[in-house]
Amino acid sequence: MSSIIEFKHVNKYYGKLHALKDINLKIEEGQVVSIIGPSGSGKSTLIRTMNGLEPINSGQLIVTGYDLANRKTNINKIRKNVGMVFQHFNLYNNHTVLENITLAPKIVLKRPDAENKKIAMELLERVGMADKADSYPRQLSGGQEQRVAIARSLAMRPKVILFDEPTSALDPEMIQDVLDIMKYVADQGITMVVVTHEMGFARKVSNRLIFFDQGHILEDRDPVEFFKHPDTDRARQFLSKIISKD
């Protein structure tokens, strides 16, 4: 396998706050990588650098062959290959569900309308939302919005999908529906990087787990081994505070 994302001595600052500290990390094609750790540790910053939403201050960040540290890099070329699913869905409220899914492929990929609609409806069927194609986001529950957001990312046929705490804004009964769709995405062989508080997903679906704290990667392990035998005191302390490890 070859690296699809590579960090080389990456640092990120917000003023005096050193959010990412000398990050070195390779993510291989087809991997499902979960990033866990306490709130405020820099997890979301790490994932948001991967598609240029947060610029880095130093180091090198190669994503699908493009160097994000190079100012000449066309960020839109990266975003063709890298989808993102946000905590708060980020759907276009003035567009229908179907339009939310077809808009970017039409504009960015120049995909013909008939093909675009066919792909979109197939994806909506896959995520259980075909009957909501003509609805607007305001008419949907949070779980439904997130399933549409995942379908929207898949419509671009990306090489990588980034998930930034995709279930944290959902009601508990909605979470499993979204996790099931994420398992489906993993089964398609798409590279996934997931910032999550869902330990069951991290353990059962991921094939790699990164424990992140205070801007550092403290552990980079097989998920099952991590949950059985964390290497660091900080990880053991973190896990001891998690009520459910199912």
Automatic annotation (TrEMBL):
SUPFAM superfamilies cross-referenced by the UniProt entry = P-loop containing nucleoside triphosphate hydrolases (SSF52540)
The family database entries (PROSITE patterns) matched by this protein are listed as: ABC_TRANSPORTER_2
A GO MF term: ATP hydrolysis activity
Q: Which superkingdom does the taxonomy of this entry point to?
A: Bacteria
Q: Which residues form the ABC transporter domain?
A: 5-239
InterPro entries found in the cross-reference section = AAA+_ATPase, ABC_ATPase_HisP-typ, ABC_transporter-like_ATP-bd, MetN_ABC_transporter-like, P-loop_NTPase
- Stated family: Belongs to the ABC transporter superfamily.
Q: What's this protein's name?
A: Amino acid ABC transporter ATP-binding protein
Species of the source: Lactobacillus acetotolerans
